[in-house]
Design brief:
The protein is an alpha+beta fold and about 140 residues long. The strands form two sheets. Strands 3, 4, 6, 8 and 9 form a five-stranded antiparallel sheet that branches. Strands 1-5-7-2 form a four-stranded mixed sheet, sandwiched between helices. The longest helix is centred in the middle third of the chain and has 18 residues.
Length: about 140
């Protein structure tokens, strides 16, 4: 399951759609909007994407994770649009027989997503907005 959405992400739905009886581990990463960055108070964020390419790249990240780690499945959902403090911006669930590969694949997925998927973040402060680069 690889999706871009504009509504709140259901981590429970993602987890339940992937978890199977043979899995002994479900590693979960949830990125959330924080209230500060670069020494400033963040009011809110906006995420934008080159959607068709971003979906293909999310799938590529998932396929690479399956090839490189002993996992059974992976799902990634990234939210687009305006997000407020505490809201989930990205959710990754990795299922596997064992926790080690699940954790490793989950870390690989978020790090690779930040570097390769065309999704951009704009942070809004009291004095204006700034596009953020570099995988923060």
């Amino acid at each position: 399951m690889f999706r871009l959405v504009r509504e709140p992400i259901s981590l429970e739905l993602l987890r339940n759609s992937l978890l199977q009886p043979e899995d002994g581990a479900a590693a979960i990463f949830e990125g959330v909007v924080r209230n500060h960055a670069r020494g400033k108070k963040v009011r809110y964020l906006e995420y934008h994407a080159y959607e068709s390419m971003a979906l293909r790249k999310l799938e590529e990240v998932g396929e690479r994770a399956k090839k490189e780690f002993a996992i059974r499945d992976i799902g990634i959902i990234h939210r687009l649009g305006r997000l407020e403090h505490g809201e989930c911006s990205v959710a990754i669930v990795v299922t596997a027989a064992h926790r080690g590969p699940a954790f490793e694949a989950c870390r690989f997925a978020i790090d690779t997503l930040k570097k390769t998927v065309p999704i951009w973040k704009k942070e809004y402060y009291e004095d204006g907005g700034v596009w953020i680069e570099g995988g923060n």
